[in-house]
Amino acid sequence: MPARCRCPNTCLSLKITKVIQIQNLWFGTLKQLILMGTLCYICFALVTDKLYQKKESVISSVHTKVKGLAEVNEEVIQNGEKKVVPIVFDTADYTFSLQGNSFFVMTNFLRTKGQQRGVCAEYPTHRTLCHSDKNCKQGWMGPHSKGIQTGKCVVYKGNQKTCEVNAWCPAEATAEVPRPALLNSAENFTVFIKNNIDFPSHNFTMRNILPGFNKTCIFHKTKDPLCPIFRLGDIFRETGDNFSEVAAQGGIMGIEIYWDCNLDSWSFHCSPQYRFRRLDDKITNQTLYPGYNFRHAKYYTENGVEKRTLTKVFGIRFDILVFGTGGKFHIISLIVYIGSTLSYFGLATLFIDFLIDTYSSTCCRSCVYRYCTCCKSCVINEYYDRKKCEVIIEPKRTLKYVSFVDEAHVRMVDEQLRGRSLQNVKGKKVPRSMMDFREVSRLPQFLPDSPPTPEQPEQIQLLSAVTTPRASSPAWCRCGHCLPSQLPKDRQCLEELCCRKEPGACITTSELFGQLVLSPRALRFSLLYQEPLLALDSDATDSLLRHCAYRCYATWRFGSPDLADFAILPSCCRWRIRKEFPKSGGQYSGFKSPCLME
Ligand code: GDP
Ligand code: ZN
Ligand code: ZN
Q1: How many C-beta atoms surround the C-beta of residue 467 within 10 A?
Q2: Residue 354 and residue 419: Cα distance in Å, rounded?
Q3: Axis-axis angle for helices 457-467, 571-580 (nearest 10)
Q4: What is the rounded average pLDDT of the residues 539-566?
Q5: Which of 138, 227, 268, 491 supports an S-S bond with 217, CB 3.0-4.6 Å?
Q6: What is the mean pLDDT of the segment spanning 384-403?
Q7: Element (H or E) spanning 105, and its range?
Q8: Which ligand 1 atom lies nearest to the CA of residue 594?
């Protein structure tokens, strides 16, 4: 036996979206304009931001060299005499090695010379002043103390007494920083910055010292923007700071080296851009620990005693920040970019859809002059809105549709009747979807030439009973042709429905009712159309024809099959059909909601 392909149909099928094409010049033009705008923006972004490139962040190394000399007048003791002599500071004196991409230039300092380990009086402050030993506590040390207290109160100078401490003596004085800064001339120092960069995945290396570099150049924003030698004063001028002010207290300055490299051979460009940024707090408020300083000690031995010179160093730390990207054409990046922009083309439809939504229902409701241009376009939009969306009502046991021949719309009733006649329930208006009448117009060829003529005298009697208005029709009947329901009491209200809302002619008296609903030939055709070999001469034929007639009426009056399934036939029609195709025994089961059926 040959093996059969068991692959489910769904696996090998393709579901695609069905769309509605609106033939409208104004919407078509708007769509084209939006599409053109989107395309222009996408191309513009592609070229200006080079989105066809693969970008990589720079990795780098930095090396700096500071040069310059400064002269500082310092007090020295020569032959037992205090003298002020000029001292020259060179690179080794004023630079300190720092970790990372930073270098430090000392601009000011406070020195405490000849300190040695021992006990001495603390520098007088409001915390260290004392009157007697009681004010001092042995072993105590505060965060600002210069040593550990011995518990004694000793004379510092004159009649000033402070607690004695075990520390480096003499204790460092808490003095004001010298102004102007001692190394104010550091403004003229120069720094040479060597920066090597690498883009590993593009296999590209580069440095900021370009071929033909002039060793005597000095960086200038416009005149020499590529020179890697910077005058410290110029850096501060660029950021709008006063060098002398910063030099006194110290500070932190950022030197940014930005590499924006285009590594494509047809538009190669890769050179650094230097920018400066003050990184510390500019507001020099005494209480907020301004500036930048640290302590540094030089140790030496004098007559076998270990001594040190303590320096509180104020200066400027320069942090070099290297960042940037290198980009090179990459086909995958281009494809990813194109893919990411495809959704933008949907904007046109989205926008027009929004316009249709906005200027349909809400706008039409507020229209006063139905024939103004605005209202006309609203009506058109409403039409498009109806065409584009299909409202699907949840099929429920309580859902029913009702149609009156004197109303253009159908009514939707979605509630329990609780003893009320269906005729009297208001319901919600739903537009009637008309069947394509061109299809219907083909039917006459199958219809009888003349309406069925009753042969039996009982049939004449029956027909006349339903074609002539009855004097004793139920209270809810408006056409005079309805009959009371024969269903159990609790379900009767469902069949208490007339073909009209207001009194008038009954739909069963219309010619079309006879042709579309009652014609046995049309009904037989309809049944055989679905089941060509159906036996239509058995006892069950009347039932089949009756049910088919119900269906024909529902499809005719309610249009769509979705509504027809839940449509309730008016009593007059129901009984007219039953008269035509009766059931032996006369006990009819009535409407069953599709939700109750298996
Ligand atoms: P039966 O032939 O003894 O079952 O009784 P009926 O002549 O009342 O027909 C019952 C069948 O017709 C069921 O399938 C019902 O759903 C359907 N039917 C009866 N009344 C209505 C109605 O008002 N609207 C719809 N859509 N179907 C109906
Ligand atoms: Zn009626
Ligand atoms: Zn009627």
Answers
A1: 13
A2: 45
A3: 170
A4: 89
A5: 227
A6: 84
A7: strand 102-121
A8: 16
DSSP state for residue 313 in the 8-state scheme = E
| CB-CB contact of 393 with 430 (8 Å) | no
**Ligand 1, atom 27: closest residue by C-alpha:** 591
Per-residue pLDDT tens digits for 312-347: 999 999 999 999 999 999 999 999 999 999 999 999
Summarize pLDDT for 190-236 with one digit per residue, the tens. Answer: 999 999 999 999 999 999 998 888 889 999 999 999 999 999 999 99
Per the structure block, which two tokens stand in for 558? 């309610």
User: Does a cis peptide bond (omega within 30 degrees of 0) precede residue 170?
Assistant: yes
Which of 547, 548, 563, 566 is the pocket-test mutation for ligand 1 (most atoms within 8 Å of CB)?
547
- Which tens digits make up the pLDDT trace of 456-499? 444 444 444 455 566 678 999 999 999 999 888 888 999 999 99
Cα–Cα distance, 565 to 400 (Å, whole number):
9
Q: Which of 144-148, 234-238, 430-434 has the highest mean pLDDT?
A: 234-238
568 within ligand 1 shell (Cβ under 6 A): yes
Distance 484 CA to ligand 2 centre (A): 10
Ligand 1 and 546: CB distance under 6 A: yes
Please tell me the number of the ligand nearest to residue 593's CA. 1
Is residue 277 in contact with ligand 1, taking CB distance under 6 Å?
no
Phi-psi sector, 34: left (phi>0), alpha (psi -120 to 50), beta:
alpha
- Show the tokens assigned to 527: 């049944």
Q: What is the pLDDT of residues 495-525, one digit of tens each?
A: 999 999 999 999 999 999 998 899 998 899 9
CB 257 within 8 A of CB 219: no
In three-state secondary structure terms, 261 is strand
The answer for residues whose C-beta is within 8 angstroms of residue 456's C-beta and 6 or more apart is: none
pLDDT in tens, 29-52: 999 999 999 999 999 999 999 999
- Is 500 exposed, middle or buried, given 0-12, 13-18 or 19+ CB atoms closer than 10 A? buried
Can you tell me the distance from the alpha carbon of 103 to that of 110, in angstroms, rounded to the nearest whole number?
A: 20
Length of the chain in terms of residues written: 598
8 Å CB contact between 291 and 284: yes
Query: What span, in angstroms and rounded, lies between the C-alpha atoms of 301 and 410?
Result: 111
Tokens 């079309």, residue located: 512
